Protein: Two component transcriptional regulator, LuxR family
Organism: Stanieria cyanosphaera
Amino acid sequence: MKKILVVDDDHILRKVLKHTLEQQGYQVKATGSGAEALAGFQNDLPDLIVSDVSMPTMDGFEFCRQLRSQPSGQLIPFIFLSAKSDLDHRIQGHQIGADDYLTKPFEMKELLVKIEALLERSRRIHSEIVHLLQQLVNSQSVNHSFAGINLNIANPNAKESKPEPLPLTPAEERVFWEVIQGFTNKQISERLFISPRTVQTHLSNILNKLNVENRTQLVRFAYEHGYEKNEN
């Protein structure tokens, strides 16, 4: 079940969105401010975010900006809802990092279509990551570009020596192998029988210990250093 985070200070609209999305089979978490959404974000990662722009304390633009500055928030689909319809305002929303922008009042049917389209795009991105991993293993060399990052990596199968032991705890190492196979936090949680919060904690520790910033860099690190297969 896909999880959607709704952020809007309008209590009635927030309630309507939550009810409608749940009726469509989504799991929904709703909050009234960007600050509150950020506070619980790492512990409960959503598959997609729908956020108002005009909110007190922290507006939607700042919420999106801070979200995109975090490795775990860079690729999450993000839709803005706003009463402001002028072109400059919409452009600003996209420049900050939003994937789509709807002007209030909007048709719920249109929002649902946009949500489905963005979730499908995320699925295709995940599939492409898995496909690239398979190519990295099966080819002598790879020169691909994905998500704006060029991957030009020699096949680690050509190396005769075994890679150095990872500087990770056993639990972190199990998560490491799952991540480089392209599994999402939710899938890892189900496969290893641990909570998504625990998965994210381990992943954050892994990124820090290996001095990489995000999943894509972690995959590159794994294949550059010969960690393409779990020998255990």
Summary: The first strand starts at residue 3 and ends at 7. The beta strands are 3-7, 27-31, 48-52, 78-82, 100-103, 141-146, 149-154.
